[in-house]
Amino acid sequence: MEEYMKQSILIASLASLLILQCGEDPLEVRITYPVEGSLTSGIIRVEASTSDNAVRVVFYVDDICIDTCTAAPFFCCWNTFLLADSTEHFLSATACDRKGNELCSDSVLVTVCNGDTLFADDFEPYLPGAYPDAGWFEIWAGAGSNHTYVDADVAHSGTQSFRLRGLGDWVRTDGVGLNLADIQHLTYELSLMIPSSYSAGALVGFFTLLNPTCGMIYNGVMFEYADGLIYVHGAVEDSTGQAWLYDTWYSVKVSLDYVGLLMNVWIDGVQVVFDLPAVPCEWADTFAIATEYGAPGIVHFDDVRIFED
Ligand SMILES: [Ca+2]
Description:
Elements (H helix, E strand, L loop, with lengths): L1 H22 L5 E5 L5 E2 L2 E8 L5 E6 L2 E6 L4 E6 L8 E9 L5 E3 L3 E5 L4 E5 L15 E5 L7 E3 L9 E6 L5 E6 L7 E9 L8 E10 L2 E10 L5 E5 L3 E7 L6 E8 L4 E6 L2 E8 L8 E6 L5 E12 L1
Parallel strand pairs: 2-9
Antiparallel strand pairs: 1-3, 3-6, 4-5, 4-7, 7-8, 7-9, 10-24, 11-14, 12-13, 13-24, 14-23, 15-20, 15-24, 16-17, 16-23, 17-18, 18-19, 20-21, 21-22
Bound molecules: calcium ion.
């Protein structure tokens, strides 16, 4: 009996110790990427490592919250293009446990280094199925937010692309805000693919809102659904005479001279338009990708890069 009591007491004590240890598990959090002193560019994942009891991590840049992550692995996508080039910034993260205890990590100092690149996205940092909201915003809803997302099954580079799905009478359009002040020459490049399984037409270029339900893309390129040809829209429209094919990735490059108001266009490295009249950058400074009006379906975009030259 005495032995039984001793064992009971021992078991009870061990249980108390375990509960005590669980209850007092110290919260830990630190930024594991990027590392202190590094040069950062583009849209990157900021990653945090925590103790097992963390249930939420809030990420900060210069003490301003940029995102909250509620499941491990804890990370957020950070758009460094929103910050001036060659500037230093402090990254930190706050972790919380179930009891509401909070702990702030040490700060990590990094320098933003994007050079002449105004924006770039290969859609690799995002979670599959998510909206790439570190860099993009919705302009027209198309088939709805459930149908436009980062797709992990189709890609030009890496494993992911941005899939847009539009309706015949409600196009899908997504944009990137750019600061084009003082820019005289700009080039944008991207890859796009229209699947045969649910084909649409596609547009890329600079968007301007004409009224709440109507917009226009200037200094852009259109893969037209109806006749399967590639067109260019500057201040005037021009047909390249080139046909496009389903299930084929195309690399589009457009060079804009905002001083001479001219545009030049390459498809897969071959120049197809020479010195077409272009509109001034003040007309439209939102870079956009879209499905074509009247052609419901899906377009995949990847490897967007916009740079001053
Ligand atoms: Ca990609």
